[in-house]
Design a protein that fits this description.
20 strands, elongated, 542 residues, four-stranded mixed beta sheet
């Protein structure tokens, strides 16, 4: 360290993770400690740097960046913090700052509570610094796991946990996890769905909204929040077809929450990965819907069925309903070589790109028509007694089983979290015993390696248990809604596209294969899975 006069910067940080510590970690308390220390040590203070509300697991913080800039410019050559955790909870990055960056730039670093001063590197508390920083990271990892667990529990309960309400809603003043309708933006949502139901394409809807001067969702969000910048949310200032399409797909307008769509790759990183739909957490009936379900469904069916029809007056009533069971692409029409047949349906990806994308999944159109008609008649002809028996069976099979699984998983998670807390305490004690000579380096390393391995294993086990927890099952209510819908329709003489779309979500067509029957004659075998509205897979026909 050179003999240049000290010019200190006091760095303070507080995040939501630290709120449990109360006033002891508050910005005001940190400032008091740092100022008293600087005064007692006769160190002149040049500036203060405060990051209030920023995590210590990453260093993308505005005042920390300003601190580094002032070090680079020579404005300060001494950094004082309350403890190591204020500088950061990423041990690798914190160690790099203290061991490399600060010395290279002739910066004296002082951690008051930890008794660390880089001007006195040979003291016992300086030797213990790496262990303290590692303990801070373990604490951050543990806190992150607890926060994720708490958030998942809230999502399962049906609480809305995002920072801002979706367009059309605001957060309730009494309960920030509850959505209530915002009359102004909800009127725009209804207008968008009404236009789509009338056949308007998303680009036409976007053009009308722009012509009418309607604020985009990003602009509307920032309108009454002067602390928000529109540039942080969108570079565009106009409605686009992509914005409209996203809204038309959003089931939040039906009173349903679909959360948990992303997961952070690490507690140290802001990056997230997208989860597959089977890992989403879905809760129904959590808030008042803006759009009626029949309107929403009509819009979705119209959006997926804008397909050109073959010539000669043929109309494919399965357009937008029949899909390839393997790749998910819509089935499309293809000429049939079979004598007397009309058309085949085949996988759209195979038709467009060939066998490198998928197989043909050919199915005779008339055969599919006949199979679907017969299965629909089976459902429509069920008696009230038969429908009640199905509901009772579903109720026994699902609700009790899942409730028991959830309870067992939550109990196991609680036990594992308690063990993780115990390990965190043991790690801190091990560092202290080693730093003060009560434990050898060899034994310390061995114990820490064992503790760290057990914590890693526990975190994986907790993650697996959390993924197994499911919200309350709605199968029984869904079957009631399905049967209620059945009462509104009667089997027509001929199937129509509108009739199918009222009752069926999709039909998955498997790849056909030829097998020989007992007489040696070749017969085609093919799977047809019918997914009815509300109840999902209700029939798998071979």
């Amino acid at each position: 360290m050179n003999n240049e006069p000290l010019r200190a910067g006091l760095y303070m940080r507080l995040s939501k993770d630290d709120e449990g510590a109360g006033e002891s970690s508050s910005i005001s308390n940190q400032r008091l400690i740092l100022r008293e220390y600087a005064q007692s040590a006769s160190i002149p203070v040049v500036d203060e740097y405060i990051d209030d509300g920023y995590s210590g697991t990453n260093f993308d913080r505005p005042d920390f960046k300003r601190l580094i800039s002032d070090i680079d410019s020579g404005k300060i050559n001494c950094v004082i913090v309350k403890d190591f955790s204020r500088l950061g909870r990423n041990s690798a990055k914190t160690t790099e700052l203290i061991d490399e960056y600060f010395p290279i730039h002739n910066v004296r670093f002082i951690s008051v509570i930890d008794g660390f001063d880089s001007a006195e590197p040979n003291k016992a508390y300086s030797i213990a610094a790496p262990f303290l920083m590692a303990a801070n990271e373990v604490y951050a990892r543990d806190i992150s796991a607890k926060i994720r667990s708490a958030q998942r529990a809230k999502m399962i309960r049906g609480d809305y946990i995002a920072s801002f309400a979706p367009y059309g809603y605001v957060k309730s003043a009494e309960n920030k996890h509850k959505l209530i309708i915002d009359p102004e933006s909800a009127a725009i949502v209804r207008q968008i769905f009404d236009l789509a139901a009338d056949g308007k394409a998303p680009r036409e809807i976007a053009r009308k909204l722009n012509n009418d001067g309607v604020l985009t969702p990003a602009e509307y969000r920032c309108k009454n929040r002067p602390y928000l910048s529109i540039e942080d949310y969108s570079k565009r200032r106009e409605w686009t077809s992509a914005i409209v399409c996203k809204m038309l797909r959003n089931r939040v307008y039906l009173g349903e929450l679909q959360q948990g769509k992303t997961t952070k790759v690490s507690f140290k990183s802001k990056q997230s990965k997208t989860n597959t739909p089977d890992k989403w957490i879905i809760a129904k009936g959590t808030h008042e819907p803006i759009i009626a379900e029949d309107v929403f469904d009509a819009v979705r069916r119209r959006c997926v069925s804008r397909k050109s029809e073959p010539n000669k007056g043929f109309k494919n009533i399965f357009s937008g309903i029949a899909v390839c069971a393997d790749c998910g692409h819509n089935m499309t029409t293809a000429p049939s070589r079979k004598k007397g047949a009309t058309y085949n349906l085949c996988c759209g990806a195979y038709k467009a790109y060939g066998s490198q994308e998928c197989t043909n999944h050919f199915i005779d159109y008339d055969t599919l028509y006949s199979v679907i008609r017969e299965d629909l008649r089976r459902w429509l002809n069920l008696s009230e007694k038969e429908r009640a028996a199905i509901i009772k069976k579903v109720e026994r099979r699902t609700r009790k089983t899942q409730e028991d699984k959830n309870k067992a998983a939550l109990k196991a998670i609680e036990q594992k979290q308690q063990r993780a807390e115990e390990l965190t305490v043991l790690i801190q004690r091990t560092y202290e015993d080693n730093a003060f000579g009560r434990l050898s380096n060899t034994l310390c390393d061995r114990l820490l390696a064992g503790y760290d391995a057990e914590i890693t294993k526990i975190q994986k086990e907790i993650g697996t248990l959390q993924n197994s927890i499911q919200p309350e099952l709605y199968a029984v209510e869904d079957y009631r809604r399905f049967f209620s819908l059945m009462k509104e329709v009667t089997a027509p003489d001929e199937l129509t596209a509108n009739f199918l779309k009222r009752l069926i979500d999709r039909i998955e067509i498997g790849q056909g294969e030829y097998v020989k029957d007992e007489s040696g004659k070749r017969q085609k075998r093919q799977s047809i899975r019918i997914y009815y509205r509300f109840v999902g897979l209700a029939q798998d026909i071979q």
